[in-house]
Specification:
This protein is of the alpha/beta class. It folds into six domains: 123 residues, PriA, 3(prime) DNA-binding domain (GIY-YIG endonuclease, 3-Layer(aba) Sandwich), CATH 3.40.1440; 63 residues, Arc Repressor Mutant, subunit A (Orthogonal Bundle); 184 residues, Rossmann fold, CATH 3.40.50.300; 180 residues, Rossmann fold, CATH 3.40.50; 62 residues, no CATH class; 94 residues, Alpha-Beta Plaits (2-Layer Sandwich). The protein is built from 21 helices and 32 strands. α1 crosses α2 and α20 packs across α21.
């Protein structure tokens, strides 16, 4: 009987996602193992599909087993820990097997079906062909007859210091023809090697001695012993903005490496990676690898392979870096741990916190969560003693916290100022510019104007495919743009499509702020940081480097300017248009505003000059803004935890959002209601499983790209029994053929909004 394996196949819908049994050809017996990437015949037409082997010696389902078409080389095999991660994601996030596989392996390391040279045989082909280059080395002496040319002498002299690539030789003016001629004479030897890439080689390594303050040293001493126990440990490093949390992690990373272990550092978004990479590269040089979505596929693959081959012992990156194939992990740091970007909104819908906890437990590592505004759940865990709490209460070098002024924008309008920049902020910017200092303005809306409304029928012009207003972007010729599906109207309409009345444009986005600042301060150099200006590769790093070099005086931008940035000449921060977030839906709305305002205010006065901040709002008495202005996290937490307790929100329960989407609104609403009934019917039989089902209700945005969205909100305890109950309900949903009406997705880490 042939060897059999259980294979998870690609493109499987959730309801038929299981391991399928295949036979292995005799000549493949030694190649196919647990974690192997394979190509298999699937379905009635035996079409080639990608798969991964997740079980060996699987029980045959019938006597007529199909044979595997092709198997990838052993180097593409998933490691034992990555295999376990795949199983963990499948169990916790309700994704398919192959969605979990694609999450833990970068695109470039994956395979796709192709045909062999005969045009018939299905074979595997890498998604990305590895780039190679020629490496030259000295192989023998240079003959003196005929007389060597200057270029030949230069080539031999250069290679005397060790092998060089063709690109290296060319930068020194030595062509490939010269090198190949020397190879023909036996002077040089050449070989093709995989191209390597040191992404941030331009950052010089500095042997800086970190001078910790007494408070930082105490924090380090409280945390460092847990690196040495070999047992998992979780800690919250909670410090006011500018208290120097990064210096504490750098010392912890150094200690971790000294112990022969590896470290993983996560940051919440791409805009923060350049500064963190710079700090780590300057200290640790080539030992640092980078993983984030702004890298192209080749760069990401080369970095991933460097980690897999043991060429890096520190990895820094955004959410997906939590899957880096590091071994012997001793430390995982999640910086700005409260950020929602650590939660994936597409399958697999995982939380980087949950995966990091699992990997820390697996490796006996320390997990350090760091923030000036920890999430309510994390701080609750720390207060309950389930996580070590380490505080930094003072700014590094003793700088005071910024002074904060709250400006009532209703009073500004009443006093005859129709602009979005208040008189107080205008005066402060004037003083700041005169002093040669820099300012950061936060405005969490990109575009020029955020709404077009008819003067006659009062209808707001919405995207034809989504139930959201279109946003006017003046830059690039002037057009209306949907920020959800990308639909454009150009040129911008002047009359209402419903009644023909005149359209009036309202609102204030980053483009208009940039224009208003240019009119108020024509001599000032204004930098706009939003999704439009940072779309190009490395744009974040280049723009932030220019701001650091004082090539700009004022930076205006969306949330990407609010966190983690450290510029010593920024002494003024302005917060504009915060009200839209203040009155947003979702149980985390207050936490989001408190965190954002606290964080952006904390960008000011981080060096010798004192900082100040101005918050503009139409609700100046708002308690959340007052506490953020005072940087009083403890008072905010005391208020927020009571609201969570009364409303039964996390940390007092888990929140599971089951979302439904489809082309016909009625069918989507019916499918959501039916799933609620199926779940309720199963729950009645197990009354000791605590849960509350709310809804179904329309999504916070009902339609995106012509797809209607509804949701059920389930307050539950996220344990094995609840997940098993949910799986049963998903099985019944499939039996009733409801997926044809509405696609379903489960999110155990949502903030309640879809």
């Amino acid at each position: 009987m042939p060897k059999t394996v259980g294979v998870a196949v690609s493109n499987a819908a959730f309801h038929f996602d299981k391991l399928y049994t295949y036979a292995v050809m005799p000549d493949q017996q030694n190649q196919v193992r647990l974690g192997s990437m394979v190509l298999v015949p699937f379905g009635r037409g035996s079409r080639p599909r990608m798969g991964v082997v997740l079980a060996c010696d699987a029980e045959p389902e019938n006597a007529k087993l199909k044979y595997i078409f092709d198997v990838a080389p052993a180097s593409a095999c998933l490691t034992e820990e990555l295999l376990e991660l795949v199983r963990f994601l499948k169990a916790r996030t309700f994704c398919t097997w192959y969605e979990a596989v694609k999450a833990v392996i970068p695109y470039g390391a994956q395979y796709k079906p192709a045909l062999a040279a005969d045009g018939v045989t299905p074979v595997l082909q890498k998604q990305l062909v590895r780039h190679t280059e020629i490496l030259y080395s000295l192989a023998g002496p240079l003959p003196q007859k005929p007389k060597p040319t200057a270029k030949q002498l230069a080539a031999v002299a250069l290679l005397g210091g060790g092998p060089r690539t063709q690109a290296d030789l060319e930068t020194h003016g030595i062509s490939r023809a010269v090198a190949e001629n020397l190879c023909a004479k036996g002077v040089l030897a050449s070989q093709r090697v995989n191209k390597s890439i040191d992404l941030y080689a331009h950052i010089p390594q500095e042997a800086e001695h970190l001078e910790l303050t007494k408070e930082q040293q105490d924090a380090y001493q409280a945390l460092a012993p847990h690196l040495e126990t070999g047992r998992p440990h979780a800690a919250l490093l909670y410090g006011v903005t500018g208290s120097g949390k990064t210096l504490v992690f750098l010392q912890l990373i150094q200690r971790c490496l000294d112990l022969g272990r590896t470290a993983l550092v996560l940051v919440p978004e791409i805009s923060l990676t350049p500064q963190m990479i710079r700090r780590l590269k300057a200290r640790f040089g080539r030992r640092v690898a980078v993983q984030h979505s702004a890298l192209n596929h080749t760069e990401r693959l080369l970095q991933w392979q460097m980690i897999q081959d043991g060429g890096a012992d520190i990895v820094v990156g955004t959410r997906s870096a939590v899957f880096a194939p590091l071994e012997k992990i001793g430390l995982i740091v999640i910086d700005e741990e409260q950020e929602h970007t650590y939660r994936s909104e597409s399958a697999p819908r995982y939380s980087a916190h949950e995966v990091a906890r699992w990997r820390a437990a697996k490796n006996g590592a320390m997990l350090v969560l760091a923030s000036a505004t920890p999430s309510t759940e994390t701080f609750y865990e720390a207060q309950a003693g389930r996580c070590q709490l380490v505080r930094l209460t003072r700014r590094y070098a003793g700088q005071p916290l910024p002074s904060v002024q709250i400006v009532d924008m209703r009073a500004e309008l009443a006093a005859g100022n129709p602009r979005e920049i208040s008189l107080a902020l205008e005066d402060a910017l004037k003083e700041n510019l005169a002093a040669g200092k820099q300012a950061i303005l936060l405005l969490n809306r990109r575009g020029y104007q955020t709404m077009a409304q008819c003067e006659d029928c009062r209808q707001v012009l919405k995207c034809p495919k989504c139930s959201v207003p279109m946003v006017y972007h003046k830059a690039g010729g002037g057009r209306l743009l949907c920020h959800y599906c990308g639909t454009q109207l150009s040129p911008r309409p002047e009359t209402c499509p419903a009644c023909g009345g005149r359209l009036q444009y309202w609102g204030f986005g980053t483009q208009k702020a940039e224009e208003e600042l240019a009119a108020l301060f024509p001599e000032a150099r204004v930098l706009r940081m939003d999704q439009d200006t940072t779309a190009a590769k490395d744009a974040h790093e280049k723009l932030l480097a220019q701001f650091a070099r004082h090539e700009y005086d004022i930076m205006v931008g969306t949330q990407m300017v609010a966190k983690g940035l450290d510029f010593e000449d920024v002494t003024l921060v302005g917060v504009l248009g915060i009200d839209s977030l203040l009155f947003a839906q979702g149980f985390r709305a207050s936490e989001t505003v408190f965190s954002l305002v606290t964080q952006v205010v904390g960008r000011s006065g981080r060096a010798s000059s004192p900082g100040r901040a101005i918050i503009q709002t139409t609700d100046p008495a708002n308690q959340v803004l007052a506490l953020a202005a005072a940087q009083d996290y403890d008072a905010f937490f005391a208020q927020e935890i009571e609201y969570r307790r009364l409303g039964l929100y996390p940390p007092f329960c888990s929140l599971c959002i089951v979302s439904f989407s489809g082309k016909k609104e009625g069918e989507v609403a019916q499918a959501a209601a039916r799933f609620g009934q199926l779940l309720a019917g199963l729950a009645v039989k197990q009354p000791d499983i605590p849960l509350r089902v709310l809804g179904p209700t329309p999504g916070s945005i009902l339609m995106i790209n012509e797809v209607y969205r509804y949701k059920l909100t389930i307050k539950c305890r996220n344990d094995k029994r609840f997940r098993a109950l949910l799986r049963q309900a998903l099985g019944l949903y499939e039996q009733e053929k409801l997926p044809a009406r509405a696609a379903l997705a489960v999110d155990m880490h949502s903030d309640g909004e879809i």
